[in-house]
């Protein structure tokens, strides 16, 4: 009936979508070819591949001062720290350019195994468990672990024994997390993937202590008078296994080359004589008492990325939603089944998982897939499933008698759908579509987990830079409110216009 004619319009829509990606499609094809080459060479010589590309892609989690953190230099964000200096020396020794990718700590090994990065330098301990999935260089830093507590609790917490039954925080996937889990079985674990969030949980008394490397703990204590270190943690395996460079399995040439650089760093004691002192000076420059206004450039950059992600995802999510709703309403069983399976699957899985699957899963086949593009694709695909159901309900809300009346007046099926059914359907579902768009703006914050510099990512950078947990979050909440409130008013305005014309 109507749907058979409408499919001509749908096919035109698909053609339009295809043509809207002229610059992306060749890139994807080239990336696919590169990925095939990568997969064949990864097991033979990763070192040769890095030299051929002329760049070394290093993954890190820039919330771990003085090992890796972010400063503002010449108006731009720059990841610095002792680990980054080690990475720079490795790149220089290999004769290639250094490229640093920032993402959450617990995503780093996944990024390494899927080829998104060539190696990981993130204060990562070369533990036996990690050695099962990746190879490590020789260690270049050894530190001990301590508990970080609130100074107000110092009288009752003097050693690790006093935290035996407490709530303990540790970074997800870290050696400290494994240590607490193994040695403090009566304690309640409160793992988080971000050091700043761990410290915030401690300061708001969600936990009584967090385990950190002593070097990182010193950095927080030096910049926050409310915190204190407890060095006596009373654990037999407290001795650090050592921080090292993580690399893909079965690449002996790469490991040998990196070890040559690490051995030189150790022989000259560069970590203690140059890298850590230099990182300390960079921290001193950014840790001057400042207000949140001084970090407005961070927040403005985050807003810009958030708006781009949201606007692009709304556009493609809306088009995909229309396509899926027509497929679900179709009498063609195959199309109907595809739409149902897609919609139910997308609505039944978390957006966070979808983002990570697109970036790390699909991204392992298309190695050049940028994090931002992966985030936009994931959010668009997710939004399309919800928009499809909203559109379907709107189309089905229009009485079939109106279609018959339009046809009796000589209108074609396409014209009937375009000028009678669709306008009324959109008018009926406009509030629901508005809610979906507002939700999408907020959901864009999830792409920060793969290193996209949107608003939440920038907030975490401000937290790392200022050692303040609550103030940056308060600013971010206000910014999100302004964005969503403005969008809500715009949508309400057009809703009123449609009601007036109706």
TrEMBL record:
Which GO cellular component does the record give, naming just one? ATP-binding cassette (ABC) transporter complex
Q: What are this entry's molecular-function GO terms? A: transmembrane transporter activity
GO terms classed as biological process:
amino acid transport
Assign the protein's first listed, main location to one coarse class: membrane
Q: Is Transmembrane helix a UniProt keyword of this protein?
A: yes
First and last residue of the signal peptide: 1-30
Q: Which Pfam families match?
A: BPD_transp_1, SBP_bac_3
Concerning InterPro entries, the annotation shows: AA_ABC_transptr_permease_3TM (IPR010065), ArtM/GltK/GlnP/TcyL/YhdX-like (IPR043429), MetI-like (IPR000515), MetI-like_sf (IPR035906), Solute-binding_3/MltF_N (IPR001638)
Subcellular location field: Cell membrane
The name this protein goes by in its record: Glutamine ABC transporter, glutamine-binding protein permease protein
- Regions that span the bilayer: 305-327, 368-388, 470-494
Q: To which species is this protein native?
A: Limosilactobacillus equigenerosi DSM 18793 = JCM 14505
Tell me the keywords, alphabetical order: Amino-acid transport, Cell membrane, Membrane, Signal, Transmembrane, Transmembrane helix, Transport
- What are the ABC transmembrane type-1 domain coordinates in residue numbering? 303-488
Output the PROSITE patterns linked to this UniProt entry: ABC_TM1
Q: How does it sit in the membrane?
A: Multi-pass membrane protein
Give the family, as the similarity comment puts it. Answer: Belongs to the binding-protein-dependent transport system permease family. HisMQ subfamily.
